[in-house]
Amino acid sequence: MARPIFDESTARSFDTSRRTVGAILSTIQTHLQKVFIVFTIGFLGIFYALRAFVWDWLRAITESKMSAQVAGQHEIIVTTPFEVILLQAKIGIIGGVLIAVPPLVYLSRHELRAQGYWPRTSISYWKFVGISLVSILLFLGGVAYAYGFFFPLILGFLAEFSYNVGIDPTWSIVMWAEFLVLLTLSFGLAAQLPLVMIVLAYTEIVPYETFRDKWRHAVLGMFVFGAIFSPPDPISQLMWALPLTVLYAVSLGITRFIVALKRGGQPNVAETFRKNLSRLLGIPLLLAAGAYAVLATSLGENIEKTLLTFRTIVLPETLPVHGSSEIFREVAPEFGIPVLLFLISFLILAIYLVIVSVEDIPLQTGRMGDPTALDLTTLDAAGIRAAPDASFETLSEVAVLSIARKAIDSEDYETAQSVLDRFDAIDRDNANESSRSNDVETATADTDQSNTEDIGGILTGSASGMFASFSEEKDEDDIGGYIYDIKYIVDSLRSRLLWIFLVFGVVLMGVFTFFYMGGVRIITQDFVSRMPSAVVSIDDIRIIDLHPVETLMFIIKVSTLAGALAVLPMVLYYAWPAMKDRGLTDGQQSVVYEWTLAIALALGIGTLLGYYYIAPGLIGLLVYDAVQGGMRISYRISSFSWLIIYTTVGVGLLACVPVTMWMLFRGKIASYNTMRHRWREVTIAVLVIVGIITPTGTLTMILVAVPIMLAYGIGLAGLWVVTVGGRLDFGNRISH
């Protein structure tokens, strides 16, 4: 009989997911007309809203914080005839789907309840409407923050950055709009954090104590989330993560209040307000008075321009709400802002006092006096030994092993061993007691005793297997000797990490600063001036970026690559003794000096040769037909600059490949036969590295990878000559 591919639990999970999807599809078939109407309304509304005023509004938001000089150079362009209408349709489809999902889920409630994905108890209509309304308001709040503060500052910063570098900020409407849509959705979804925390804690899916105790992990996750979805600069990541951290703290307080009420806590609002009345009124009054005093000075005009320019930042001109902002503008500076500040601060303080007025009720995980409700994961070794037997009798072997593994992960091996010993002893006692109560013949009793020993030995074997991984006596061949080699080498570099990271940071910041101070413009102008004057002039070529973060990402990539190349000789020099200890090389450490000097010479000579002769002629040949045809040449920074790098520094890097191969051979790190037989692995590694550091596109990756592999072949040919066809290879001498 053939063995199944999946175990029973996995197959059951797949079957449950299949039935759930089937139930939703069945709902779509039943209510297709209703769902399609909702989708169509959302699609058409968004599609025509984009045509009517959204594009102009987004353009105004994008340029609201740019200087006049940068705004004059900034452009939103269309690169293909169907881009705009297809983009509007794409955004309309996304919006229509998002609008149609809640009604679809609601119409599927009966099928989802049958599958266990809907609460068994009925939810009142007002609760459903209230939760939906809160979710919509939170989403709109996140979007308002994005368009009111984040986008104007960040897009202005990115455009100024490109302009200062020497690039014209000419953004493709597709890339610009997709960038805004992605960040809009991410801000709206991130704003759902309070609702998600409250629902999870209220239903005890994730206890409130977990949110409270794991706040450090949550903050780290917010910064990681911000690094993924926001532009790769510190300002953007801080503007993303810091508001989300504040929102997490507020959500934690609200969650505590609601969970405490559910657990039986009683709010003492009147008494709390009575004791804190002076602070409840005094703090808002002081803030309002301070705001009025500031507005009465010359700072009031600057604050008015910064905070009350609704037309150019928040509201499109076509909305009727926009007209009312002019009335508010007349009264806001001296009266509106202090009153608004008083009301907001009073409301925040009142909410805070209501939250703290409820006593924090701890989570009850079982009946009082019930030994089976004891959480063994919270006990130390002494607590495990003192725990009642009933706490272990209801546990399965898998559950006990899970508790022991958690203790091992915390490096509490004594507790892990105590858990296994207690369960083993209780299991053995139960088996012995069962055999004594069974009045049978001696042979039957012996059989029971044998079974008891088998049962008792199950966890002993499991414990031996678990703790064997922490034994000092290990066979490296069982796991792979290279893992231990790498770990040993990395450990030897720990004392040198400060200097390595210092050099890496200095080189990275130096290259980044050079580009930021106009290095791209300097190199471009000098490079174009070296092309044949009969072919192209400096006015014929314009460097642009089609994506808001394209210039920033290019400079970060180049700076990181320069930093990595700078510290590579240092890493190899410091790691050389450890490599000799592990038998990875028999050569002298002085080879590193020779290799560094040879690499520097090869890189320098190749770069100069490419910059003065190869690259100008090659690029001039590429643009000749376009110039003769009277075309306007606009190259993307990620394409033109990489082309310059490939034809200048790339020539030097190609020369470094055979030089490095010779030094690896001379340092007895890699033999000729090893490099010859491992060419497939080298090819894969080259393709992976090239795919990471080069612009997207298979053709570009191939154009870079093929010359590198040709240089690798040249290096192999040179080593073949030196080793007389491999006969003098040091690997052969060692084997003999």
Question: What report would you give on this structure?
Answer:
The radius of gyration is 35 Å and the shape is globular. The protein contains 32 helices and four strands. It has 736 residues and is mainly α. A two-stranded parallel sheet has the order 1-2. A two-stranded parallel sheet has the order 3-4. About 8% of the residues have low confidence. It is a multi-pass membrane protein.
Low-pLDDT windows of residues: 308-316, 318-325, 365-369, 440-445, 447-480
Largest sheet: 2 strands, parallel
User: Strand content of the residues, in percent?
Assistant: under 5%
* SS content category: mainly alpha
Number of strands: 4
Write down the Rg: 35 Å
Q: Could you estimate the helical fraction of the residues in percent?
A: over 70%
Transmembrane segments: 35-54, 85-107, 128-159, 179-203, 215-232, 238-259, 280-300, 335-358, 497-517, 554-576, 597-623, 643-664, 684-704, 710-730
Pfam families: TatC
Family: Belongs to the TatC family.
Subcellular location: Cell membrane; Membrane
Task: Please write out the topology.
Blueprint lengths: L7 H23 L1 H32 L4 H6 L1 E3 L5 H25 L1 H6 L10 H41 L4 E3 H18 L2 H10 L5 H6 L1 H15 L4 H29 L6 H7 L1 H19 L3 H9 L2 H4 L7 H36 L24 H6 L3 H4 L3 H13 L3 H25 L4 H27 L7 H4 L1 H12 L4 H33 L11 E4 L5 H32 L8 H39 L4 E4 H11 L1 H18 L5 H6 L1 H15 L4 H25 L7 H6 L1
Parallel strand pairs: 1-2, 3-4
Helix pairs in contact: 2-4, 4-7, 6-7, 6-24, 8-11, 10-11, 11-16, 13-16, 14-16, 19-20, 20-21, 23-25, 24-25, 26-28, 28-31, 30-31
Keywords: Cell membrane, Membrane, Protein transport, Translocation, Transmembrane, Transmembrane helix, Transport
Family: Belongs to the TatC family.
Function: Part of the twin-arginine translocation (Tat) system that transports large folded proteins containing a characteristic twin-arginine motif in their signal peptide across membranes.
